[in-house]
Specification:
The complex is a heterodimer.
Chain A: E1 14-16, E2 25-30, E3 34-40, H1 45-53, E4 59-62, E5 67-72, H2 77-87, E6 92-96, E7 101-107, H3 111-116, E8 133-138, E9 141-149, E10 152-158, H4 162-173, E11 178-180
Chain B: E1 2-5, E2 9-12, E3 17-21, H1 35-42, E4 51-57, E5 65-71, E6 77-82
Antiparallel strand pairs in B: 1-2, 3-4, 4-5, 5-6
The complex binds zinc ion.
Chain lengths: 181, 90
C-alpha cells in the first residue's frame, strides 16, 4: 500500500529564504521509513544490546534508558516489526512507530546553527559525535535528534506535531537560505 | 539551574517536571487507625532551607524518573540519580 508522508503538502521542493548564493542548509523528509520502538524487559539490557548488534540493514538509535528506535529504509514496516518481535521475544517489547513519527534530515554548513536555536544540547563534535542520539525539545515539541554526519542530523517528532514543527524549522532556516529536497 | 541527568547529560531545568519530596514513605496499613500516617504522606511536606531530595521526571528528555538532591537556598544541585537505581518506592 502506498504511504503518504504527513508533510507531503507542506514540504515542497525548492529553494527558499535568503538568497545569498549557496543555501545554508538542506531539509528533506525521510520517507518512507520503517521504525520500531524497542524497550528492554526487566534485567535484559545487556541481552538486548547484543541482540540488536546482530541485526542487518537497520539503524539502531538510543532513545532513552534501555530504549531504542530501530529503523530501516529497505525493510517494510511489517517485515521489520515481525523480525524484531520474533528475534526479541522475551527480551524486549516492540511497537511499530512507522506511522507515528516523522523524520526530517537537516544538513549543510548552517544546520548546527539552526538546531542551536531550538535545543539546549551542546552540538559541538566532542560532546555530540556522529552516531549519537539525544531526546530533547525544540519549540515545545519533543524531538529525537541524531547526528548522522559532521554537518548532518536527523530529527524525529510525533506525526501530529510534524507540520507545526516544519513551520518552525523552516522559519528558523530562512535567514540562511534553505533547499528542500 | 542545570540538572545532570544520568541518561542524557546536563540539561536545563525547563526540561524537567518536579513531583516533590523523595523521602516520604508510603504507609502500608489500610486500617482507619493509620489515617494520620496517610494524611502525613499525602499532604504534609516540610519546606526546608538547605538540602532537599525530590522526585523529578526528565519529561522533556528521556522521561525517566530521577531523585535530584539540591540546596533550596542556593539551587546548587548535588546529585541526580535514576529513581529506579535507588529502588525508591513511590
Ligand atoms: Zn534524561
Amino acid at each position: 500500500m502506498l504511504r503518504t508522508s504527513a508533510l507531503q503538502s507542506v514540504a515542497i521542493q525548492g529553494r527558499f529564504g535568503a538568497d545569498k548564493g549557496q543555501p545554508g542548509l538542506m531539509l528533506s523528509v525521510v520517507h518512507p521509513l520503517a521504525i520500531a520502538m524497542v524497550i528492554a524487559r526487566k534485567g535484559k539490557s545487556k541481552v538486548l544490546k547484543d541482540a540488536l548488534a546482530t541485526l542487518k540493514s537497520v539503524n539502531v538509535l538510543w532513545a532513552g534508558p534501555d530504549q531504542y528506535y530501530v529503523q530501516s529504509t529497505v525493510k517494510s514496516e511489517t517485515a521489520l516489526y515481525i523480525e524484531l518481535k520474533t528475534k526479541l521475544a522475551n527480551i524486549a517489547s516492540v511497537t511499530d512507530q512507522s506511522h507515528g513519527r516523522v523524520t526530517i534530515r537537516i544538513s549543510g554548513p548552517k544546520a548546527r546553527a539552526v538546531l542551536a536555536k531550538g535545543t539546549p544540547i551542546d552540538l559541538y563534535t566532542e560532546e555530540f559525535p556522529v552516531g549519537k542520539s539525544a531526546l530533547t525539545q525544540m519549540a515545545h515539541v519533543g524531538v529525537h535528534l541524531t547526528r548522522t554526519g559532521n554537518d548532518e542530523f536527523t530529527l524525529s517528532v510525533f506525526r501530529g506535531f510534524s507540520e507545526s514543527f516544519w513551520e518552525w524549522l523552516t522559519s528558523q532556516s530562512a535567514e540562511f537560505g534553505y533547499q528542500v529536497g | 539551574m542545570l540538572i545532570p541527568c544520568p541518561h542524557c547529560g546536563t540539561r536545563p531545568v525547563e526540561e524537567f517536571t518536579f513531583l516533590g519530596d523523595a523521602t516520604v514513605i508510603r504507609p502500608t496499613s489500610l486500617e482507619p487507625s493509620s489515617m494520620d500516617d496517610w494524611m502525613d504522606y499525602v499532604y504534609l511536606r516540610d519546606n526546608p532551607r538547605g538540602n532537599y531530595a525530590e522526585y523529578v521526571q526528565h519529561s522533556g528528555g528521556c522521561r525517566a524518573w530521577l531523585v535530584v538532591t539540591r540546596n533550596t537556598g542556593t539551587h546548587e544541585v548535588h546529585s541526580a540519580v535514576a529513581a529506579k537505581a535507588m529502588k525508591a518506592k513511590p
